[in-house]
Amino acid sequence: MGSSYIPVDDYDYLFKVVLLGDSGVGKTNLLSRVARNEFSHKSKPTIGVAFTCRSIQVDDEVAKAQIWDTSGVERYRGITSAYYRGTCGVLLVYDVTRHETFENVTKYWLKEVRDHADSSIVIMLVGNKADLSHLRDVTTEDAKAFAAEKENIYFMETSALESTNVVNAFTELVTKICHNRIVRPK
Ligand code: GDP
């Protein structure tokens, strides 16, 4: 068992994953790391919704995920239900140096997902900017405990800047989706 990145365009599964979380937590940079292994120090909100694809090997099958980023739309919150349509997984991101972004996961984003998405959806809670340890405002233990008491929520800390755990978080989410058979092979 296990999964690894393979740059192919032939696949057994195709499904949609969305990035959610407050503005500035690092969603755009997590996406560009997963897709192109790039990072940008400038925050440049994209207007509208961007998506990109990445294929990975899960066991002996190839899963291709279409990853959607709200890119600024989240500022207005209340993302339309069209955005969630057909979504199998969520990368739900907060910034470990800003406690309010974690509170918004618990107070706002999870409710929004539950209201709009299918109940079988798999969520990877991502504590990003883990490289900024001197500025840490959310403990690993608190986030881990929060995820552990919920069904279908997993947890990982990442650094898009240092490229730590970014692909792991995405790969684990995709693997859980495939193992749960939320999607059927094409
Ligand atoms: P978004 O609004 O959620 O899409 O966030 P962005 O990806 O635009 O990132 C917001 C800011 O945080 C930018 O200045 C990034 O350079 C910075 N940033 C993103 N990820 C990290 C990270 O892992 N570590 C550090 N130190 N900065 C990051």
Automatic annotation (TrEMBL):
<dbReference type="GO" id="GO:0003924">
    <property type="term" value="F:GTPase activity"/>
</dbReference>
<dbReference type="InterPro" id="IPR050209">
    <property type="entry name" value="Rab_GTPases_membrane_traffic"/>
</dbReference>
<keyword id="KW-0378">Hydrolase</keyword>
<dbReference type="InterPro" id="IPR027417">
    <property type="entry name" value="P-loop_NTPase"/>
</dbReference>
<dbReference type="GO" id="GO:0005768">
    <property type="term" value="C:endosome"/>
</dbReference>
<dbReference type="GO" id="GO:0005525">
    <property type="term" value="F:GTP binding"/>
</dbReference>
<keyword id="KW-0636">Prenylation</keyword>
<dbReference type="GO" id="GO:0005886">
    <property type="term" value="C:plasma membrane"/>
</dbReference>
<keyword id="KW-0449">Lipoprotein</keyword>
<dbReference type="GO" id="GO:0016192">
    <property type="term" value="P:vesicle-mediated transport"/>
</dbReference>
<keyword id="KW-0472">Membrane</keyword>
<dbReference type="Pfam" id="PF00071">
    <property type="entry name" value="Ras"/>
</dbReference>
<dbReference type="InterPro" id="IPR005225">
    <property type="entry name" value="Small_GTP-bd"/>
</dbReference>
<dbReference type="InterPro" id="IPR001806">
    <property type="entry name" value="Small_GTPase"/>
</dbReference>
<keyword id="KW-0547">Nucleotide-binding</keyword>
<protein>
    <submittedName>
        <fullName>Putative small GTPase superfamily, Ran GTPase, P-loop containing nucleoside triphosphate hydrolase</fullName>
    </submittedName>
</protein>
<comment type="similarity">
    <text>Belongs to the small GTPase superfamily. Rab family.</text>
</comment>
<keyword id="KW-0342">GTP-binding</keyword>
